[in-house]
Amino acid sequence: MLLKSDIQRIADLSRIRLTEKEAEDFANNLSSILGYISQLKKVESDVSDGQLRESDINNVWREDENDIRELDNMGKNLINMAPERQGGYVKVKKVL
Amino acid sequence: MGRDFSDLTIKEAHELLISKDVSCVELTRHFLDIIQKTDKDIHAFLEVTEDLALTQAKIVDEKINKGEEIGVLEGIPCAIKDNILVKDRKCTAGSRILENYIAPYDATAVKKLRDAGVVILGKTNLDEFAMGSSTENSAFGPTKNPRDLGRVPGGSSGGSIAAVAAGQCLYSLGSETGGSVRQPAAFCGIVGLKPTYGSVSRHGLIAMASSLDVIGPAAKTVEEVESVFNAIKGKDKYDATSIDHSISPALSGGKGGAANLKVGIPKEYFIDGIEKGVEKCVREMIDSLRSRGVEIKEVSLPYTKYALPVYYILMPAEVSANLARYDGIKYGQSGIMNHELRIMNLLDVYFETRKDYFGDEVRRRIMLGSYVLSEGHYDDYYKKARKVRWLIKQDFQKVFDKIDLIITPTTPTTAFKFREKLKDPLQMYLSDIFTVSANIAGIPAISVPCGLARGLPVGMQIMGPWMGESKIFGLGRVIEHITHNT
């Protein structure tokens, strides 16, 4: 069902690089899994989009004020975890 | 000297501590010794936090010596699954991509345990990013089932559960997305709870599928699991999906409460393909309950057979989004560090990082997720799965209008052997067939040991209505009582 070229496209979307052999193996696995989950296509459901929105999504609000929980070193600690950094910044390759 | 504290319950250990029969340091050292002796065979732990545990134990001893009162969980040694953040300690999620990651903060559940005086023995093994049902997908080697070292403990919380079953700690925290606490609890013969979605904060739990994830406690008995659940539950402003969990006192404590219960047996869960010994154990327990005055009714959950396909669409979709953050830029391992690679641009950083440091199952699920969310497939798969999810929830709503609790086997088989299900991922996925519905619907569910089949533990699952943990604990205690007296 899924071709190696389909897998390559999906892997690209997922930012994952595969070898030829891996692409073939994943194509087989994923085809069989897709075969299994495709049984859902047959299910009749008159659930409306509105009902879905209602059941899943609840906006949670808070006051627009700073959270001062343990903030002293949190920022520095987080930046220090980046593999490449400079000054107080995370360093990345050129984006544009 | 050399007393065996592994068979103690939390309450019994608490009594020993407050009567100064044993010091917290002595109790802690006992478990550290057991881990040292047994973990080379079992491999439940990825890291033993000896210094942390002893520091915490000393603080508890100081309190006791000063005559201060201590809480029931204070000084009780536990283990924490390695996808739950413990500040300043490594947190790997069982993956090479986080093998050098140090948690910058505590998970809320851990913070609550610290406030309750926890002693943390270490971080336990798991399938990589909680993806798996056997702990064989850990990047750091599998964990073995303490009841039979040739078999898997289950997964993904295999390490947490094995640690309790092996007497290496008195309780542990695991996490669930599709059954990852209940299934190993069934395989290893202990009690494992999946709380109502939102009742325990997910802040500090490394995200797998955000609409399904929940932290769950495991211990030898229902009462212990209940006391840990009560300590970690609660609305948390750092988790917008967390809820206020009010327990109705109706059925907590005592075995007398069971007489008024209406329990449903869903016909869709007693299918061909269940191991004969498992079915026998569960049916015998149902008969015992009936003879004790529990009303047993057959019920129907018609959308049950779609639960696993729904799960294997929604979960990978959310996984593909949640694991996008592992890009080698902000933390964790990175392709940038490998100077032999020709990292030319930003895209290369992503590709090289994710190629080398993610295992097969993780990449499989990310790609499955990308596929079901992609143009041309979104409506057929993801949107459809969300609609069927709604229908599955409705199944439970209708049934819980008429009955209090649902009983099923936790798993279709007892613990399988290593490598038995590795060739075909779909075979592995099928071991979660009875547990995933509770995650999809967000309802609470527990696995309680209910006997043996060919010498291996069998778990019985009790599912309850949203926020119905107290009813579940009530029936769980009855089942325990029956098992111990048979």
Structure description:
The complex is a heterodimer of chains A (96) and B (486). With 96 residues, chain A is mostly helical. In chain A, 47% of the residues lie in helices and 4% in strands. Chain A is flat and about 55 Å long. Chain B is α/β, with parallel strands linked by helices. In chain B, 38% of the residues lie in helices and 13% in strands. An eleven-stranded mixed β-sheet of chain B has the order 1-3-2-4-6-5-10-11-9-7-8, sandwiched between helices. The longest helix of chain B is centred in the last third of the chain and has 24 residues. Chain B is globular, with a radius of gyration of 22 Å. The two termini of chain B are 33 Å apart. About 2% of the residues of chain B have low confidence. Chains A and B meet through helix 1, helix 2, helix 3 and helix 4 of A and helix 9, helix 10, helix 11, helix 12 and helix 13 of B.
Blueprint of the fold:
The complex is a heterodimer of chains A (96) and B (486).
Chain A: H1 4-13, H2 20-37, H3 49-56, H4 71-79, E1 85-86, E2 89-90
Antiparallel strand pairs in A: 1-2
Chain B: H1 10-18, H2 24-42, E1 45-48, H3 50-65, E2 77-81, H4 108-115, E3 119-124, H5 158-165, E4 171-176, H6 182-188, E5 191-194, E6 214-219, H7 222-232, E7 262-266, H8 276-291, E8 295-299, H9 307-322, H10 346-357, H11 360-373, H12 379-402, E9 405-409, H13 425-429, H14 436-441, E10 445-453, E11 456-463, H15 469-484
Parallel strand pairs in B: 2-3, 2-4, 7-8, 7-9
Antiparallel strand pairs in B: 1-3, 4-6, 5-6, 5-10, 9-11, 10-11
